[in-house]
Amino acid sequence: MTNVLISGASVAGPTLAFWLREHGFHPTVVERAPSLREGGYKIDIRGAALDVVGRMGLLEDVRRHSTDMQVARFVDVNGRQRATMSAQLFGGREGDDVEIMRGDLAEILHEATKGDVEYIFDDSITALEERPDGVRVTFENGPARTFDLVVGADGLHSNVRALTFGEESRFIHDLGHHISIFTVPNHLGLDRTEMMHPAPGRSVGMYSTRQSTDAKAMFLFTSPADPYDRRDVTQQKKLLAKIFADLGWDVPRLLDSMWDAPDFYFDSMSQVRMDRWSSGRVVLVGDAAYGPSPASGQGTSLSLVGAYVLAGSLAAAAGDHAAGFAAYENDMRPFVEENQKLAASNLKGMVLKSAGQIRFQMGMLRLMPHLPGKDRMIKRVTEPIRKAATAITIRDY
Ligand SMILES: Cc1cc2nc3c(=O)[nH]c(=O)nc-3n(C[C@H](O)[C@H](O)[C@H](O)COP(=O)(O)OP(=O)(O)OC[C@H]3O[C@@H](n4cnc5c(N)ncnc54)[C@H](O)[C@@H]3O)c2cc1C
């Protein structure tokens, strides 16, 4: 039996644990947070990833937790509605695609694995030492242990990647924008509605999903010129307040709520690009290896598919982990590249550069339902996403 240590219990980690266990491996998951991290933002599952979730027998459960978003409304500085569109089209979803809160998905994946996978919360790997018989792992809190393989499923700022491959600045590519998202009171009384207020170089959103009593505020903006410390939350909040200080609509109220937000998130919109995803007995999966950025809308799907392919490739390689890692990389890389390409073009529509571009976009959205070529125009938005999301065949292992 191969003992595998997985760092990170969000999407990629528990999915990998599920499939490794199915193939007869013995996975252990270590998560830095004291318990499963709840909430977060809404994420999409589409294309090949739906097939993976279906094979896990979790599709019904995932659908039951769908956000059920109905509509996106674009408002001006005075809160006057300028355009609307269906939430499905706004999210670039079609057909069976599902939108769910990241925390709900993590919970479903944890529930499906916790019975026979060892989860260690409130701990983190501090050192990895390759030995002939495996990897000696030292932890912040628990005693050192030896595992046959170690997997980094610990996200954009992966700890395992830093310990194995070095400085993250070599792999993280800033796409020129930042994103901040946090929970706010639902003072607009939104029900499965997304509000968007576009401004030149900036965009503010607020939404509330089915079942939630509060709302999320989302701020997108061209990367700040002022440098900031990634660990200094107060400095980040001050920066956000400064960048959005002159906007109208509900922005002042959202910024007021920011100071008490329990889950303030602030980061660059970045992609992880690496020449290889494994070194010796250590391998990366999900955002840690090939995070496509929130702008791609495909991070979760890549994590789900990547975890399935990695577990299957290791099983097919029957004990030769190097061959398993090579097969995983060979199958996943073209799929990853297709999906990473989505981010740059999506960003162009998410943050508009000038007032003229905003007026044009609002006008087009208002006109679209009445245009003879509307289906063709919609397809132009959804087709590249659908193509990228299905650019891999899910094999049986
Ligand atoms: C604001 C925002 C919006 C997004 N929107 C979408 C979307 O619409 N569609 C989509 O598909 N994707 C979206 N994403 C991306 C998606 O959330 C990620 O791609 C996906 O969650 C990646 O899963 P993961 O398991 O690889 O990493 P993560 O979800 O980042 O999880 C990493 C886990 O590792 C843990 N961890 C970190 N460090 C350590 C450590 N030292 N030791 C142990 N554990 C550690 C973390 O606590 C976390 O639980 C969005 C992301 C953000 C930030």
TrEMBL record:
One of its GO terms (molecular function) is FAD binding. SUPFAM superfamilies: FAD/NAD(P)-binding domain (SSF51905). InterPro entries: FAD-bd, FAD/NAD-bd_sf, FAD_aromatic-hydroxylase. Gene3D superfamilies: D-Amino Acid Oxidase, subunit A, domain 2, FAD/NAD(P)-binding domain. Pfam families: FAD_binding_3 (PF01494). Residues 2-338 form the FAD-binding domain. It comes from the Bacteria. PANTHER family: MONOOXYGENASE, OXIDOREDUCTASE-RELATED. This is FAD-dependent oxidoreductase. It comes from Planotetraspora silvatica.
